Each structure stands twice: as C-alpha cells, then as structure tokens.
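ok so for the tutorial part 2 we go from a plain amino acid sequence to predicted structure tokens. step 1 is just haveing the sequence, like this:
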Amino acid sequence: MENFIELKKKLDGEIIPCSALAEYFLRKYHQEKKIDYLPGSDNFNILVDRNLNEKELKMLNKIQEIILNQFKETGVQKALNFAVFNILNQICVYPISDINKYTDNNDNVLPDAFLVNKGTLLRNFVRDKIHTDLADHFIFGIDARTKKRLGENYELRHNDIIKIVSAK
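step 2 — the prediction. this is what the tokens look like for a chain of 168 residues:
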C-alpha cells in the first residue's frame, strides 16, 4: 500500500493497482468449483473448505485481506476496461433481433457484444460488424431501450442495444 501511495504522489493520471496472480487463482479456483467468484468483484465465497488445503486457504485469505478489502478488486478487469474504453476509445454495442426480450433469433439474451470506435455510425457498424448485405438493404435501426427509430447516421453510444431493420 505504501508503494501505491508513493506512486500516486509522483505520477499524474490514472493509476490502477492490479494483481494478475490474485485474479488467476480466483478464476482457477472458481473454475475448479472450490470458490464462487465473479471477475471484478470485491469478494468470493469458499464453496467447500475440505476442497482446499491449508496453504490454499491462507493464500485466499491474504488475497481477501490485502487486495480485495483494500482495493475492492484485483484490478485486472478495471485495467482492461480503462485500456479499452479510455485509451483505445472504444464503445460496446449489442445488436439484437427482439427489442422486447433483447434476444437474437434463437432467444439468446444479448448474444453478441461488439467493440467499435467512438463516433461509429450505425450504417458503418452494420456493414463492418454484422453483414454488408444487411447494410446495403438497411432501412433503419431501433434503440431497444427507448424504441426510437435510428437513422443510418446515428452515432452509436456505449452500451447501445440496437435492432437493425432491413429490406431483405
């Protein structure tokens, strides 16, 4: 913690404390069904104590005390989000078929998420990320949240959920 405080004093801009090793073990033990952990969260639950030896329990307690309790996360997800959304200037867009259930044609909820540059226009998104034929026959888009029609020059926003309407 002292190093982090000193670093904050010396550097301008965003500093994201991060422990990839802690995130690795949390995800590994989650995958092995030893703990319940959601990446980016500030805690985890041990599912069955007997599945973990004393060394593993001690390590998990250290992760909780030293990293999660102080920084509220391992920092891996925060660092990735900062890099993608702030440095690379990306936004996330979700194309769907059903504007009421937010599903595709197979009833999968928000099945696809696309990262695109801020400033991307709807028609370019359709052409570049979905299908050129759909873009060629594009009529309009629909914002699934507001149900408003969107023109081809609509500038996409972060976390837009969009239905594309085409003539084909």
